[in-house]
Amino acid sequence: MKSPAWVEEFPGAITVCDPTGIILEMNARAAETWAKDGGRALIGKNALDCHPEPVRQKLLQMLENHQSNTYTIEKNGVKKLIHQAPWFENGEYGGFVELSIIIPVELPHFKRGG
Questions:
Q1: CB burial readout 32-46, b (16+ within 10 A) else e
Q2: Helix %, strand %, coil % of the chain (to 5)
Q3: Which residue in 41, 62, 84, 101 could disulfide with 12, CB within 3.0 to 4.6 Å?
Q4: pLDDT score at 51
């Protein structure tokens, strides 16, 4: 499946899985992020097999219950926001999308009125 140019060139990693965890798509940044594990060769593999416990169980829960999961990580001085959310097509559950975006270590937080 060919992604639109903006998805392919988006400066964050985008990985799309089906309802069982099979990786369907990765943009260029995701392929680069996971290069040492196979990059785009991971397409067709199960994301569950790429994660140790207890992360595997968390992913299973997300898949079974169509849940979102959001957190930040920091590795080698690089901080990332990870957002995993279900996706749907014509109202039918399709699996989940993971967005991984590099963010500043110190991130401003604003409360808006309303």
A1: ebbeeeeebebbeee
A2: 30, 35, 35
A3: 101
A4: 86
For residue 6, the cross-strand partners are none
Q: Looking at the chain, how many residues does it have?
A: 114
In this structure, the strands spanning 13-17 and 23-26 are antiparallel
Instruction: Give the whole-angstrom CA distance, residue 33 versus residue 80.
Output: 12
Residue 91 has which token pair? 């109202």
State whether residue 40 is helix, strand or coil.
helix
Asked if residues 97 and 14 have their Cβ atoms less than 8 Å apart, the reply is yes
